Amino acid sequence: MAESPSPPLPPLPKPYQDTAAYWEAAREHRFIIQKCKDCGEYQFYPRGVCSHCLSSELDWEEASGKAEVYSFSINYRAPHPGFADKTPFVLALVTLDEGPRMMTNIVDCDPDEVRIGMAVTVTFDDITEQVTLPKFRPI
Amino acid sequence: MAKAMREVAIVGVAESDLGRVPDKSKFQLSAEASRLALDDAGLSVKDVDGLFTTIITEGGQFSSMMMAEYMGITPRFTDSTSIGGSSFVVYVEHAAMAIAAGLCEVALICHGSTNISDRGGKGGPVSQSSEVFGPTQFEEPYGVSTVGSYALAAQRHMHEYGTTSEQLAEIAVATRKWAVMNPKARMRDPITIDDVMNSRVIASPLHLLDCCLVTDAGGAVVLTSLERARDLNKAPVRVLGSGEAHTHRMISQMPDLTQTAAAISGKLAFERAGLTHADIDVAEIYDSFTITVLLTLESLGFCAKGEGGAFVSNQRTAPGGDFPMNTQGGALSYTHPGMFGIFTVIEGVRQVRGECGPRQVPDARIALCNGTGGVLSSTGTIILGRD
Ligand SMILES: [Zn+2]
Ligand SMILES: [Zn+2]
What we know:
The complex is a heterodimer of chains A (139) and B (387). By secondary structure, chain A is mainly beta. Chain A has one helix and nine strands; from the N terminus they run βαββββββββ. Chain A has a five-stranded antiparallel β-sheet with strand order 7-6-5-8-9. In chain A, strands 3-2-4 form a three-stranded antiparallel β-sheet. Chain B is an alpha/beta fold and 387 residues long. Chain B has a single domain, classed as Peroxisomal Thiolase, Chain A, domain 1, CATH 3.40.47.10. Chain B has helices at 26-41, 63-71, 87-100, 146-161, 165-180, 193-198, 226-229, 262-273, 290-300, 308-312, 330-334, 341-353, and strands at residues 8-15, 50-52, 77-79, 107-114, 131-132, 201-203, 206-207, 216-225, 237-246, 282-285, 366-373, 378-386. Strand 1 (12-13) of chain A pairs parallel with strand 5 (131-132) of chain B, so a sheet runs across the interface. The structure holds zinc ion (2 copies).
C-alpha cells in the first residue's frame, strides 16, 4: 500500500544574484556563459564581476555547447545520499570551445569509453521542474 | 622581516589521543594537545598570547575566539585563516611573523577533530545538504567529492606524463613501512603494491589504499623567540624559511591540474631559507592521497614536472631510501582527522630534534614540511632546522 519512498535528490543549486540567469536559461535548455564587455574574456562559473579584470560589465552569450574532456573520473562511491542509485557516474572537467573549464557529468555513454580529449556536446538533464543541469555527451 | 623570522623557534609539539576517540570532543582533543605541547616546551597556558586555529566542522564558527575561551586564553594576536589542511603549516609562518614583529611572544597553534566519530565511526558521505548556495553549486550537483577532485588530477597527470597506478602505489607502500615503526600509527601491517592495486577503486584512477585514513585527532605546536627558546626544555627548532599560496577553491577552477601552489610556496621557502633541495634531510609532505604527494614533490622542485612517478619508484621514500618522507606514516597510515597539516610540522620538529626512535632519520638536521589544503588549492611550506 505504502509507496516506496523516492530516493533523495542530489544537492541542487539555489540560484542567487550572480547565477539566476544561468539556471533560468538551463531550464529552457539554453547554455549561456558570460563574456566581459571590457576585456573580452569569457568566464565560467557566472560571477557578478569579471575574474580577469574585475569589470561589472558582463554580457550573457549563447555558448556553442561544444567542449573537450580535460579530465574525468569514474566515481564508485556516492558523495551524498542523492547519488546512491547513480553510481558509477562520470565526474568530468570539460574545456568549452569558448575557453573556460567547467565541471559536469559525461552521460549517454559507457563510463569505460570516456577519454581525455574526447569531443562532447551539451545536453540537458531536467532533475526537477525547477532545476535543469547542463551535462555533456560524446558527439 | 623574513630574516627576523629566522630568529623564531618551535619549542613544543604534541598530539592528543589519536584514532577513534568517541568519548572526547574535538575541542578537548585540541586543548589536550595544547597542554601536552606546552608541557613539551616547559611553558604554561598562562604564557600564551598568540592563538592560531581553525575548525571547519560543526561548532567551529569563530574558531580562535571559541578555542581561546575554551582554554582560558586572552590572545593579543589571533588568526583563524581557514584554507583547509595547510592552514596549520601556514600558521607557523604567521606565528613567526607575529613573534618577529613583537606582536606576541608565545604562539599556540592547535587543532582538534572528531572526523571519524562524527560519522558514526564510518567513512562515506559527509554532505546531506539538499540546496547549494554560492559557487560550489557549479560542482556539488554533479557529485563532486574530495576524492573525486584528486582523482581528476591523477587522471590528467597520467594522461600528460604516463604516470601509472603502480607508481602512485609506491608512495602508499613506502609510507606504510614508516608507520610500522610508529606505535601511534593506526595502520601498521605492511602492504604491497599489489595490495594497493587490488584494493577497490573509489574514484578512478584512485584505489582505496591511495586514500588517507579518516580518524579523530588533535595536535599542537608552540613557538617563541629563539632567545626565549634557548632557556626552555627542548632544543629549539628554527623556522628557517616559509611560504604560502593558494590558486583556487574548486577543482574546476584549478589553473593546471598537474601543478600545485607548492610551486610558489616552496620557492619562497627555499629562497628565504637560503637553502637548496640537496640540503633537505627529511620531507613531511601532506598525503591526503598518493597523487597529492606526487604533485607536491614536482611542484616543490624535488624533480622535474612529469617525473614524480619515476622519482618515487623503487621505494625511494621508504625507510633506508635516499628520500625519507612521511616518517610517522603520514595521513595514509598514521592519522588523518580531515586536516593533516599540523602533523607534518610535529613530525618535522621531532625528526630535527632526533627524538623519533626506530624511525629516526640519521642525523636529520633540516626538515621540509608541506601542507596542502582544499582540493590541491592551498599550500604552506616551511623549512625547519636545528639551532
Ligand atoms: Zn574583464
Ligand atoms: Zn584547573
